[in-house]
Amino acid sequence: MSSLPFADQSQEITTRLSHMGRDSAAHGGFVNVPVYRGSTILAESLEQWNGAKTTDNPMANYGRFGSPLTRSLESAICTLEGGAGAVVFPSGLSACTHALMGLVSAGDHVLITDSVYGPTRHFADHVLGRMGVAIDYFRPTDVEQLKQKIRNNTRVIYVESPGSITFEVQDISAITAIARKQDAYVVMDNTWATPLFFKPLDHGVDISVQAATKYIIGHSDALLGIATANDRALRHLQAAAHDFGETAGPDDVFLALRGLRTLAIRLQQHYESGVRLAKWLEGHPAVDAVLHPALPSHPGHELWRRDFTGASGLFGAVLKPMTPHQLSVLFKAFRFFGIGLSWGGFESLALLIDPLPKRDDGRAFGNGHLLRIHAGLESSDDLIHDFDAALAAARKVAG
Asked: Residue 189 catalytic?
C-alpha cells in the first residue's frame, strides 16, 4: 500500500494518521517503516554519492542526518502542521532550545512568555544570557505589555499556549501580527494541544515545537522532540540541528511513528476525561480553583474556543490549604494517579507543584496547593472516584 495523497484535508484525521508517513511498497511490504540503525550509508556509484550532497551539507549521506524512518516521521508531522519542513530532535527541550539557537545571535533580544516551560526558561537565562542575548519576559495575556517590551533588536518572541503549569491562553494571532511589524520570528511550544487541536503555523507562528515524548509517542517509553518550520525559518532550524550535531535514536523515532497512528483516538479520550474530571473538581469543597481552558470559568476560555479544536488531558487545580500530613495522605490514597514528571502517556498523573512556578509579576495562588493533573486513558468514572476517595482521606486526618 502506498502513501495516501493528503491534499484532501476533508479526510477524517484517524484515516490520515493511519496512512501518512509510510509506504509499504518501499519497504518490502511491511506495514510499518522498519527501524534503520546505522552510521555509514554506502553509495553504489560516485554519481550517486555526489547526488546526495546538498548545498548546506555536503556530508548529508550519513546516518546522523536521518534515514527513511526519520524522514517518514518528519514528513508526517510536517503534513499535520502544514509546514515547509520538520526536524527531529532527541528530546522536547532540545527542540525548544535549538529552535531558539537557530534564530539568535549575540546582541539580539528575545521576548518570552513568563508562563513558559521551566527548563526553556532556565536555558534562556543561563545559556542565551551568557552568550550575549538579552532576555525579557512578558505576561502571557497582556498584548499591550508585549508591545511595550519590543525593541529594535527583538529577534524572537517565544510563546506557549496554554502556559506551562498555569494554563494561560495566549492570543497567538495578535502576537504574530506584532512580531511581523518588527520582522521578528515567533516560536511556539504546542505540546499541550498537538497539531490536531491547534495549528500554530496557520496563526502566523514560524516554528512549532512538539515534545513528541508526550502525546505523539503516547506510552511514556521514549524521549523525542520535533520542530516544524515555515519557509522563512526552515533553513535556520535545519542549520541549528546540523551545527550542534543533533540526532535522534531510531527506536525512539519508530515509537513516535507508532504512536502517531492512534493519536487522534487517544487525544479524544484524554480530552473528554480531562474535561469531565476538571468539572467535577470545580464543584468539590476541597478545591479552590481549576485551571482548564475548556471550562467556561477559565479566563482564556473564549480564546480557547476561538482558536482550538480540543483540549488535552493536562490541567491544573488549586486545592484549599492542607497540612503536609494531609497532602501525604492524599497522594498515598491515589490508586490510579501516579506521582511523576512528564505527561501525555496512557497513565494518569498528579503532581504537587512546590515551589510554585516563577512569574515575573508576582502572581500567586493564594494559600492553597497547586496540582498539575493529567487525565490518562482510564475510565473517567474511575478517575473521579479515585480523586474523591483521596480527597476524603486527606480531609479526615488532622495535621
From this structure: yes
